Amino acid sequence: MVIAPISSRIRQSADEKRAVVKFGQRIFSGGLGPDACDFLFGNPQEMPLRGLVEALIRHAEPRDTQWFAYKQYEPVAQEAVARSLTRSRGRPYAAADVAITAGGFGAIAAALLAVLEPEEEVLYPRPGWFNYGVLTRGAGGTPVPVDLVPDSFDLDPGAIAAAISPRTRVVVVNTPHNPTGRIYPRRQLDALARVLAEASARHGKVIYLLADEPYARIVLDGRTHVGPAESYPYTLIAYSYGKTLLAPGERLGWLALGPDMPEPDRVRLREAVTTAQVAHGWGFAGRTLQRALPELEELCIDIAALQSRVRRMVEGLRAAGYEVPMPEGTFYLIPRSPVPDDRAFAARLAEGGVWVLPGSLCDLPGRLRISLTANDAMVERSLPVFARAIREARR
């Protein structure tokens, strides 16, 4: 029998994601149970922000026959993002340099499709988000993971410099970093900028920096987000509202061009990004979401409540004997598994109704990833289970 061919790029991506996909299917096919403590994938465990619901209802009501017609961008959405970026980052962002996308996925996909030639390389951090490789291959590129500094999870400009080749086109920086919670300081971003500028000159082509920043507003202990675009002019910034609104199923995000990029290059990139969104399958956010964006831009989950939840969980885990760093941003914790096999230990926790992501599924072998989009009651129910599991592991 003849087997129908499929894209080798998609097959490679499917192979790469198979462990995560099978893990999710196995768990959710059986259901977690009504009292389960779900720390898995960052789904919300409380009712949505009321302001989000009201904004969507308000802007879904049609006011003319063209209310739901084809349109790429709503100017009010672009202008709202540009104002917010200008205010928070101290640079004059232009509305024309903001593409409204179908979530952070759409922003990254548009960026890669806009700048990559076939087989050009995208360097991205390891450990890191599990979809960088998939999106790179989907844009026809070659994914190249580069290890962060062990234990501190800092950027390693030397390792990035060593990984850059004549085929390198994009370097991805994710800050605050998923899953470690690290916020990279200006000195590391400046060092990376020097590496990219030197490599661009050496190879005779621009190497872009793609700043993946969906957690830019989820910073803890009074810290501030530090943006790579202020260090390197050839930066594209990808953002998702799915984290700040805790509504990942509503696909709303944006891609912004760094304001210090030369104007002729920004003009070409604007058109390239828009065309990439069409090529990606009309990767524009829906019009209702775009119209609501100026109001959604002002909303965010309760960071003080998240901070309290993070502290409670870290203190509880440390008291039980876990080694767990305090994150600087995001809503993840990465405690070390008390046994080398993190999948086996995650399975032991699941027997007690506590569901975490084994670190080996996100390039963090020997650790666990805990998503604190869970509610406070789940945290309290989980801590005795964590304590019992580590006691049993040490027997």
UniProtKB/TrEMBL annotation:
Residues 43-381 form the Aminotransferase class I/classII large domain. Coiled coil: none annotated. Signal peptide: none annotated. Pfam families: Aminotran_1_2 (PF00155). One of its GO terms (molecular function) is transaminase activity. Its EC number is 2.6.1.-. It is an enzyme of class 2 (transferase). It comes from Neoroseomonas soli. Its cofactor is pyridoxal 5'-phosphate. Keywords: Aminotransferase, Transferase. This is Aminotransferase. Belongs to the class-I pyridoxal-phosphate-dependent aminotransferase family. PANTHER family: ASPARTATE AMINOTRANSFERASE YHDR-RELATED.
